[in-house]
Amino acid sequence: MLAIVLLAASILALGAWLMHRRAAPAGAAVPDNAWTPEAMRPPPAPAAAAEPSSAAAPFTFDASVIQLANRLAAERLWKLAFTAPLQVQCPAAVTARVRNNIEAMLLVDTVDPKYFPRRPALLPQLLQAVDDPAVRSEKMSRMIAHDPVLTADVLRLANSSRYRLSPTPIETIQRAIVVCGVDALRGMLAAALMLPAFRATRRNFPRLPRMLWERTERAARAAELYAMETQPQDRFEAQLVVLLSALGPLVVYGAALDVFARNPHFAPNGALCVELIGSLAPQMSRRIALEWQTSARLAGALENSPAEPLTVALHVGELLGTLSYLESQTVMSRDDRLEAITAAGIAGESTSRIWAGLTANP
In the prediction, which pLDDT does 200 show? Predict the structure, then answer.
């Protein structure tokens, strides 16, 4: 009888142990103290889920603050391009006349087509290719191969320090697709399509188109890296909105030079050009986007819509691209750059990763 009782007790104990093992997570070992009185106490009620920490988010900032920081950095870029003093140094009457003439040329319902760059012929196809996941690399290659100049520009970008990942030169579009990927190639193609607008030569301030293009290349790459941190599906659109934004300063620049040319007794004034670009260029970029019939998202970003994520990508990209260019020209120190990033409210690990990707292999 005693043997039966002991056998029954053993069976019950074994069953309890097996039930405990089954309740434990798969692969988890049962701790040595699983059977102690302390371990057998009921577990405490689960605490309320903690709110996500803002410090853990990739980016937390005030969009208006970063927009202001971007504008201030851009002013330094324009002043470098025009070698301009801090203040407009010409009579107020002259300044007002030049400004009124430029506004009369640009702030009208129909702007003279010579001031607006033509929409690249392949841009609609490129936008369609982005929206259509069925578009393969072979079609992208054929789009590019029809234009030898475009092919050369795409390959130049593919071999630049911002995209080239191997020491072996990239000599064909097919190789560029293999090394950089279709997504990166779309961005490079968009940049190559825009490049002719920045090649126009002007007698006065010839540095601006060249300097603006180099800054824009950096800014487009920074916007792409930002999108990859936050909205990877937007990496192409983030680049494209930066490229569109850069066209506005070119429009104002061309109009200003024409006004100075028509009035030879007015000496071209760099500081006035800086002021006019700051006030008129954003409107011109929006006008171009509408005339080119780009997407509502791109237009919304250029309108600074707070509901459009591309708005932030635009300002982050332009700010980091401008700071990168100014630092490369020793116009800004590393400490100045870090201070500007902190003032913009975007200092953190995500921005550090973007900066590392932007400045890798200089």
Answer: 58
How many Å apart are CA 165 and CA 161, to the nearest integer? 8
* pLDDT score recorded for residue 274: 87
Contact between 164 and 221 (Cβ < 8 Å): no
* C-beta pairs of 309-312 under 8 Å, 24+ apart in sequence: 309/230, 309/231, 309/234, 310/234, 310/237, 310/238, 310/241, 311/63, 312/59, 312/63, 312/66, 312/226
Give the contacts of 76 (CB within 8 A, at least 6 positions apart): 322, 326, 331, 332
Sorted by sequence, the CB contacts under 8 Å of residue 92 that are 6+ apart come out as: none
How far is residue 246's CA from residue 242's CA, in Å, rounded to a whole number? Answer: 6
Q: For residues 229 and 223, give the distance between their C-alpha atoms in angstroms, rounded to a whole number.
A: 10
Q: Output the pLDDT for position 199.
A: 74
This prediction has a pTM of: 0.77
Distance CA 298, CA 289 (A): 8
Residues 129 and 7: their CA atoms lie apart, in Å, by 75
Q: What is the DSSP string of 227-240?
A: HHHH-GGGHHHHHH
DSSP for 154-170, please give it.
HHHHHTSTTT--SSSPP
Q: How far apart are CA 75 and CA 277, in angstroms?
A: 9
Taking alpha carbons only, the member of 359, 360, 352 closest to residue 58 is 352
* Confidence at residue 19, expressed as pLDDT on a 0 to 100 scale: 44
Range with lowest mean pLDDT among 91-100, 186-195, 341-350: 91-100
pLDDT (0 to 100) of residue 351: 94
Residues 6+ apart with CB under 8 A from 87: 271
| CA torsion through residues 220, 321, 242, 234, sign | positive
Note the helical H segments in the chain.
2-23, 37-40, 63-82, 92-106, 123-131, 137-145, 148-158, 173-180, 182-194, 207-230, 235-245, 247-262, 270-291, 296-302, 309-328, 334-344, 349-359
Q: Cα torsion for 230, 235, 240, 243, to the nearest 10°? A: 70
The vertex-123 CA angle with 117 and 126, nearest 5°, equals 160
